[in-house]
Amino acid sequence: MDKHIIKSANEAAEKIIEWGESHKIETCFERAERLKPCPIGASGACCKVCHMGPCRFVGRNAEEEARGVCGATLPTVAARNMVRMIAAGTAAHSDHARDMAFTLLAVANGEAKDFKITDVRKLYRVAGILDIEFEGRAVNDVARDVALRFLEDFGRQKGEIYYLRRAPKKTQERWKKWGIAPRGIDREIAEAMHRTSVGVDHEPDHLLTHGLRTALADGWGGCMIATDITDILFGTPRPVKAEASFGIFKEDEVNLVVHGHEPSLAEIIVDVTSEPEMIAYAQSKGANGINLGGMCCTANEVLMRHGIPTAGGFTNQELGIMTGLVDAITVDVQCIMPAITELSKKFHTKVITTSEKAKIPGAMHIEYGEHRAREIAREIVKIAIDNFPNRKTEGSHITDKFPVIAGFSHEYIEYMQGGRWRASFRPLNDAIMAGRIRGVVGLAGCDNPRVPSTGIHRFLATELIKNDVLIVSTGCGSAACGTAGYLTPEMALENAGPGLREVCEAIGIPPILHLGACVDNSRILTIASAMAEEGGLSDEIGGMPAVGIAPEWMSEKAIAIGCYFAASGVPVIFGGESPIGASSEVTRIMTEVWWERFKGPMHFEPDPEKMLALALDYIDRARAALKLKKYEPGKFGAERVLLDMAARREIEKASAKPHIGIY
């Protein structure tokens, strides 16, 4: 018998994988073993943008000598492949943002009766950024103007997208100097596809420069728009306690999973599962209640706002079904494995697709529309309830689960450092300047079955906080930390360095802050901008002691995210082999040239130890360039006294001065 190879660093996931192997059930882990990547395509050395190809660029001197049928060189092909990935990732996030803008418009016009403006304060803040008058106006009128202003960003042909103004002025100046300020979201995506088609743009640096312009349309356009609208409609997150891992599923209740990336339907399902008549209907079928859980980024959305438990990220979706306890799983768009429909036949799970854009052979399809959201949600919940009696005894019933603290929005991080009246990023800046916090890392991206899944996330999370690095996490990176039990304040006491631990204890936070779904990487951009505005560190995003890491990425969305961080001035490290590694010229542009122009190089590094060393080196180099105190564990400079929450509440009570502004 072959020795079992560890496929997931998550113990609960590994138990289910082993159970599946013993029952001859195939998952993404087995397929990843069987289907080896094409070494030519994996390194960016394959061109298939026309029917004269595909052309393969191979050989010892391919970079200098190889030519495609049209005469294209390897650097051109590698750059084109990268830009197409950026365009696809930007399209995915921004199409989601467009749908959210239309939902906000429908709510404002009274056409989506099941939704409302939940966070009026956030609406007014956004309106102020967009130069929309809100004082003395009806909430829905303001919301309508905000939605229409956002929609302008998609079709704009000249000028700049609105949210670029949220970046520090010096960052904006860099974008203008190098010509990467995006005009309109759809225009940049369309131009990227045009430039990379046969016979158009062949200069690698020129191609990649437009790639950065397209990526910025994602980060400061699509992602930021989606995050803000979601907050306006469903509430800006504040810390909540929940649970993570496969133990969230209950044997005596109906288990319904929401999976994907669109939060609107999931929000209504949260309401419907708590309706008395629905609970009574579940009880009539022999269940004690209805248990809602999440997967992937929809999980992050309902986790942050309602404390709905999560079963994990991308590689856990098949394993969730293999518990035998999932009565129905509803999916929309992005990161849905079509394999789940075939797998579900071995159990009893109903797979329900809900987006007009995404159908899967073998799944039920119930198309979602915001105009009848509650009706659709009730239909889905009833399907799950009706399927409860069909449960089979087989399945790997896992009881492991961990507590999670999630929901750290930009607004709450600002609030927790000074209260409502004195909200500010000054304490965080001070802690970095003093050396209590060495720097900040955004730990994001997917989890990948081609490595021991979630293992690199966990290694980096542990080592970074040990080195006094504060982590902000999103997407499946957050799920990896949550299902490992890393998203609690107790984690700081047990594992964080002395400076970071002191800060976490004073403020009452975990050393890893769960910021939300993958589109919520935009929260990191606004936090970095606020820190620059606060002063004391860098006067732009570039040059801050901060790094972005996507250690197990697999999606084109991750590439778009990484590139908009690089263009914004944040060094970025991706795990795995480089998708442009066949070209030393393209590698040089994305590391050396982007560093010189934007202070945001982009690296690909498969070795976790080297990823860690590279991240810490960038942080320490930034500290040195800013003339901050050299980081020494346990040795802090003189700075403000760190106030705990109780002390800040006393300051708030003593303040008679009325609050000016929105937050």
In percent terms, what proportion of residues is strand? 5-15%
CATH class of the largest domain: Alpha Beta
- Fraction of helical residues: 40-55%
Give me the number of helical elements. 27
> Got a strand count?
15
Q: Strand pairing plus helix content: what structural class?
A: alpha/beta
- CATH architecture tag of the largest domain: 3-Layer(aba) Sandwich
- Please outline the major beta sheet: 6 strands, parallel
The whole-angstrom Rg is 24 Å
- As for the CATH topology of the largest domain, it is Rossmann fold
Mean pLDDT: 93
N/C terminus separation: 62 Å
What is the spatial order of strands in the main beta sheet? 12-11-10-13-14-15
**Uncertain runs with pLDDT below 50, 5 residues or more?**
638-643, 654-663
Sum up the overall morphology in one term: globular
* Count of domains: 3
